[in-house]
Write a structure and sequence with these properties.
This protein has about 140 residues and is mainly beta. It has 2 domains: about 45 residues, no CATH class; about 70 residues, Beta Barrel (OB fold (Dihydrolipoamide Acetyltransferase, E2P)), CATH 2.40.50. It is built from 1 helix and 8 strands.
């Protein structure tokens, strides 16, 4: 069984194209008084309401804000992968992003503010998803 697929639209296509190319792309408000990065993709800035957002590559580094270990996934296609870690990540550019943390569920490296870096593993359906890995010096998952 294939996992659910993302709905790729004209609004979010640059994000998914970036993932496929190994680049984390985010929108940024074009209003110089705001200029905040925005995630998830939208048609206007949620902070100031400006309707002009540009796409920029971001660093892909962040810090672990929170995580959970998934034992009962929301779709049966993920049953063979449990348990896995799902994380809330605060990116260096500001936005909060959720994604898979490629770390064993029992890892002692899981701690708030752990440094993370985005990675782009391909999944069986051919979609490339943004995921994260811990970047402690000398750490190997």
């Amino acid at each position: 069984m294939l996992p659910p697929q993302p709905r790729i639209t004209e609004v979010n296509r640059p994000f998914w194209d970036g993932c496929r190319e190994g680049r984390l792309m985010m929108q940024r408000c074009a209003d110089p008084a705001c200029a905040r990065f925005v995630f998830y993709p939208r048609v206007c800035c949620p902070y100031c309401g400006n309707g002009t957002l540009s796409w920029e590559q971001v660093s892909g580094v962040g810090k672990l804000q929170s995580w959970t270990v998934v034992h009962r996934p929301g779709h049966e296609a993920f049953m063979s992968e449990v348990p896995y870690v799902f994380a809330a990540v605060v990116l260096a550019e500001g936005p909060l992003m959720y994604g898979r943390l490629l770390e064993p569920a029992t890892s002692r490296a899981l701690e708030i503010n752990a440094p993370l870096r985005v990675v782009f593993p391909a999944v069986s359906s051919g979609v490339v998803l943004a995921a994260f890995q811990i970047e402690w010096p000398g750490h190997a998952p």
